[in-house]
Every structure is written in structure tokens, then in C-alpha cells.
Design goal:
By secondary structure, the protein is mostly helical. The protein is built from two helices and no strands.
Length: 54
């Protein structure tokens, strides 16, 4: 499978502590939006855990 899922790539990037500014897709594209959404989903979860102290 050569087609990559931008949402999953964004999730992976957040897990690897790659900042949102590291989005490799063209700003304004659907892939950019999907990558950002995946990144935000994981980053938001990580931040919530950290603020809870777990």
C-alpha cells in the first residue's frame, strides 16, 4: 500500500513529539487538514494526561 493516510501520519507525528508546524502537506490542502486533525487528536490526549498528572 503506497497511499498514506494523512490523519494517521499526524497521529504518529504527535506521538513522536513532532510539532504541528512539521506538517509536510501543502497548507490549505485536504491532506494538510487531515494531518493536523490527527496530530491534534493525539496531542490533545497527551496534554490532558499531563495536566491530570498521569
Amino acid at each position: 500500500m503506497t497511499d498514506r493516510d494523512p490523519f494517521a501520519e499526524g497521529e504518529r507525528a504527535a506521538r513522536e513529539n513532532i510539532p504541528a508546524e512539521g506538517n509536510p502537506h501543502l497548507d490549505g490542502s485536504a491532506e494538510h487538514a487531515l494531518w493536523a486533525a490527527g496530530h491534534e487528536k493525539v496531542a490533545g490526549t497527551i496534554e490532558a494526561r499531563e495536566s491530570e498528572g498521569s
